[in-house]
């Protein structure tokens, strides 16, 4: 298998994986609201969700390095199904909703750093002239196309339930049912698309608890002392904080802008799909875009991330559907334009045997930022409104982008 064949296989898999995730995205907060939760309740639920991810992500990344990335990924699909089923039966039980959030967060922690690391390592061990930067930009396009398709389906399903008068506890429950079925299907598809031949370093007999802890703590130490990695971790924390704010409050904000006009739930799926397509466009354009910055990842990150903060403030001030959509799409184009550069910097400065762990640390920074945002911004939004929440996040994004200017131009391999 050459690099192009590997890329095609991985693109298909990631497109399927993220289309399943996308089914819940346009209605996630609406699902919680349909079960009687207010903004502060939702903040607590999201804190449990992302908190369980943050708590488990790093040690589970180490396990993936030892036991095998595909095996751990398959486990994440099973846990995701458990979370969806728990949320389906939660009805108005806050305890069950919290439990569902824990399982869904755990699923994300199990998945994190598995197939990303598998793809990077496999890509660099087979023949072909394709560069990793170009390959990952194509993968991210497929990810966003999958998310867009899933979001369109997820936005359409509640309207479909209403049109047929299907007897469900909530018009959003069909989304959860479809996700369970799709996850089971992906479980078996993964055996065909993901092959893992390098099994020698995954021998479970070599795995000791103390070794795992030592492995994880060493990776954490390096991630916050390494001259390049620590800047990535710091800005990733802010990225997670801001992303949580957008994901948690764009649906209720748009609901207020629409003001009960006859758009239907499908508009949420439509806007979600446009967002993901815009993110995919930014990923695809990241390769030619970086040439404008003389192949400097840090300069690309600084410019795009700071401009995204400006447009987030504009988004907070939008008062029509059209102005919301325009600001929302431009914001996400800029917000995600540097993601490929971050992945390149992170992978190029990390050793192979700790790659899953380091990717999990990076992902955990996103989730830690999300936990803080969920707890803090739930209160801010309930007391002062979403506009205040978003304007503050916009200024935070602008100021934190200055950290990218401290990233040195040369690669510095992490030494543990």
From TrEMBL:
Protein name as annotated: MFS transporter
Transmembrane domains' residue ranges: 12-33, 39-60, 72-90, 96-120, 132-156, 176-194, 232-250, 262-287, 321-338, 359-380, 386-407
Membrane-protein topology: Multi-pass membrane protein
Cellular compartment(s): Cell membrane
Keyword presence, Magnesium: no
Pfam family name, one: MFS_1
Domain Major facilitator superfamily (MFS) profile: 1-411
Main location (coarse class): membrane
Entry keywords, A to Z: Cell membrane, Membrane, Transmembrane, Transmembrane helix, Transport
């Amino acid at each position: 298998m050459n690099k192009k064949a590997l890329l095609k296989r991985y693109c298909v898999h990631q497109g399927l994986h993220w289309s399943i995730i996308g089914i819940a995205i346009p209605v996630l907060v609406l699902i919680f609201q349909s079960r009687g939760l207010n903004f502060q309740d939702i903040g607590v639920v999201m804190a449990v969700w992302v908190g369980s991810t943050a708590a488990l992500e790093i040690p589970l990344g180490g396990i993936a390095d030892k036991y095998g990335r595909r095996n751990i990924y398959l486990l994440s699909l099973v846990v995701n199904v458990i979370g969806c089923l728990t949320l389906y039966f939660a009805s108005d039980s806050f305890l069950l909703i919290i439990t569902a959030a824990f399982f869904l967060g755990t699923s994300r922690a199990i998945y994190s750093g598995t197939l990303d690391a598998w793809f990077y390592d496999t890509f660099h061990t087979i023949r072909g002239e394709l560069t990793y930067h170009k390959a990952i930009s194509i993968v991210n396009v497929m990810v966003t196309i999958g998310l867009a398709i899933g979001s369109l389906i997820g936005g359409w399903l509640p309207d479909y339930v209403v049109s047929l008068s299907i007897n469900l506890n909530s018009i959003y429950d069909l989304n959860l049912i479809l996700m369970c079925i799709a996850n089971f299907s992906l479980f078996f598809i993964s055996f065909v698309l993901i092959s893992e031949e390098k099994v020698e370093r995954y021998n479970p007999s070599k795995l000791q608890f103390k070794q795992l802890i030592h492995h994880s703590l060493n990776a954490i130490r390096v991630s916050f002392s390494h001259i390049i990695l620590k800047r990535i971790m710091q800005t990733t924390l802010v990225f997670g904080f801001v992303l949580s704010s957008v994901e948690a409050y764009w649906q209720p904000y748009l609901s207020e802008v629409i003001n009960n006009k006859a758009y239907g739930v499908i508009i949420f799926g439509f806007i979600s799909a446009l967002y993901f397509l815009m993110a995919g466009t930014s990923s695809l354009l990241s390769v030619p875009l970086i040439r404008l910055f003389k192949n400097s990842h840090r300069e690309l990150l600084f410019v795009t991330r700071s401009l995204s903060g400006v447009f987030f403030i504009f988004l907070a001030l939008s008062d029509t559907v059209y102005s919301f959509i325009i600001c929302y799409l431009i914001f996400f184009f800029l917000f995600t334009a540097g993601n490929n550069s971050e992945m390149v910097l992170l992978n190029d400065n990390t050793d192979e045997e700790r790659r899953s762990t380091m990717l999990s640390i990076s992902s955990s920074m996103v989730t830690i930022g999300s936990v803080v945002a969920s707890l803090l911004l739930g209160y801010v939004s309930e007391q002062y409104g979403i506009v205040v929440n978003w304007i503050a996040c916009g200024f935070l994004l602008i100021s934190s982008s200055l950290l990218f200017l401290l990233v040195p131009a040369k690669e510095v391999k992490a030494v543990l």
